[in-house]
Amino acid sequence: MTITGTIEKKGFGFGTWALVAEDGKTYELKDAPKELQQEDIKVEIQGKIREDIMTIAMIGPVLEIESFKAL
After folding, report:
1. Model's pTM, two decimal places?
2. How far, in Å, CA of 61 to CA of 35, rounded?
């Protein structure tokens, strides 16, 4: 799947990196690379939803990144 949106840091403490899609849905990024660890950049991410993973942040579906590009 391909999702376009904006990177945000969510949660308490160390927080977690998330993609807020253009439709408003929030996805937790699994193992976000350094290039995506900055707020307010617009990106297009190709990846898959990992339904076999639960996280402490619980901010939305966990998105495993296959590829990405800044827009």
Report:
1. 0.92
2. 21
What integer pLDDT is reported at residue 15 of this predicted model? 87
Question: What's at 54, amino acid-wise?
Answer: M
Dig out the tokens for 45 from the structure. Answer: 């991410």
Place of tokens 């949660």: 11
What whole-number distance in Å separates Cα of residue 42 and Cα of residue 50? 22
Q: Which CATH architecture has domain 2-70?
A: Beta Barrel (2.40)
Residue 28 · residue 21 · CB < 8 Å:
no
Which residue ranges make up each domain of the chain?
Answer: 2-70
CA distances from 61 to 28, 37, 52, 55, 66 (A): 6, 18, 10, 10, 15
